[in-house]
Amino acid sequence: MCAVRGLTKTYPAARGRRGTPATPEIKANDAVELQVRRGEIFGLLGPNGAGKSTLVRQLTGLMRPDEGTVDILGHDIVRHPERAARILAYLGQESTALDDLTVSLAAETTGRLRGLDVTRAREERDAVLDELGLTPLAARPIRKLSGGQRRLACFAAALVGERPLLVLDEPTTGMDPVARRAVWAAVDRRRAERGTTVLLVTHNVIEAETVLDRVAVLDKGRVIACDTPAGLKEKVAGEVRVDLVWRERAPLEVPEVAALRSRADESGRRWTLRLAPEEARAVVATVTGGAAFVALDDFTLATPSLEDVYLALGGGAQQGLVKA
Ligand SMILES: Nc1ncnc2c1ncn2[C@@H]1O[C@H](COP(=O)(O)OP(=O)(O)OP(=O)(O)O)[C@@H](O)[C@H]1O
Predict the structure, then answer these.
(1) pLDDT confidence of 314, banded at 50, 70, 90?
(2) CB neighbourhood size of 184 (10 A)
(3) Residue 210 φ/ψ, nearest 5 degrees
(4) ABC transporter domain: from which residue to which, for each copy (predicted)?
(5) Ligand 1: residues within 6 Å at CB?
(6) pLDDT tens, 238-282?
(7) pTM for the model
(8) Closest ligand 1 atom, CA of 54?
(9) Residue 105 CB neighbours (<10 A)
(10) Please, are residues 260 and 279 in contact by the beta-carbon 8 Å criterion?
């Protein structure tokens, strides 16, 4: 469906103007390889600045790579970037030229631009607005909507005049749970009924875990892991996550607690530890008995989530985990 080989993109260095520092060149994508299968919901996960948006802008023909190839449904997108618009729908992070239109007209116009006749464009517009619960907002200009509503309206427009590949860059940012569910239901429905393939950029690992078939983790422009969520989780399967929430503060006067501190990620009253199962048992025994227990508000033990994988991989410290 979509094959990316050796994709490399470097943003050139910029000389600083008066008072502003110069910026060095940045290799935003470094020999990226990806294979997305038909009908798959494929995720691109990675920290800020990992190179996800740069990658999708090249896949969608909006930016030319320095090196490498992008093949989507047999089309060479690097040589023929204009073909991308015929085979994929792209929802970028930025607001679009549609912002000045009403929700209804944005959806209809997108359909018309994609070659639908007026009747068909209006039928699809009405169906998609209804599906996403946007009918009450149909007459409102997109520019005057809330952030989450605007995002949903742009998503709706992207769905009119169906394309076999949907490329969504952080589609649910700013959305409330009802809108998020509507988005994932719409994505799932298209995949089930029409075999639509979805490439999804996200930071939201918890959300991603439930919708993705496979995920590539990007860090500093390179793919450092690519597998199913379950496959990725196996890589940290030896670990258990222990969350300790203290009532007011950690009882550092208890030597066992003080000894744990260097291994904990601290966030307010919460300590998060990633431990081998037997260590986790020992920690639970310590904090649920004696002086530490008095200071403890809550604790949980959990098997690894995709978020743990993301954190384990995100630092780029475990590059040995790459799996093609
Ligand atoms: N137009 C640009 N000029 C110069 N550098 C850029 C440009 N766009 C992005 N970069 C740099 O390239 C790197 C990759 O950026 P990119 O936007 O692709 O990351 P991302 O993974 O999409 O991040 P985020 O999750 O924050 O959206 C970053 O270091 C960024 O600062």
Answers:
(1) low
(2) 16
(3) -85, -20
(4) 2-245
(5) 11, 26, 28, 46, 48-54, 203
(6) 788 899 999 999 999 999 899 999 999 999 999 999 888 888 888
(7) 0.80
(8) 18
(9) 18
(10) no
130 CA to centre of ligand 1 in angstroms: 35
pLDDT tens track for 130-162: 999 999 999 999 999 999 999 999 999 999 998
CA 28 to ligand 1 centroid distance, Å: 7
Total number of residues shown for the chain: 324
For ligand 1, atom 24: residue with the closest CA: 48
Pocket test for ligand 1, best of 9, 25, 53, 169 (most atoms within 8 A of CB): 53
Task: Tell me, in angstroms, the distance from the centre of ligand 1 to residue 137's CA.
Answer: 33
* Neighbouring residues of 11: CB distance < 8 A, sequence distance ≥ 6: 25, 26, 28
Give the three-state DSSP class for 315.
coil
Q: What is the three-class DSSP state of 2?
A: strand
Compute the distance from residue 218 Cα to the ligand 1 centre, in Å: 12
CA of 305 to the centre of ligand 1 (A): 27
Rg (CA), the chain: 23
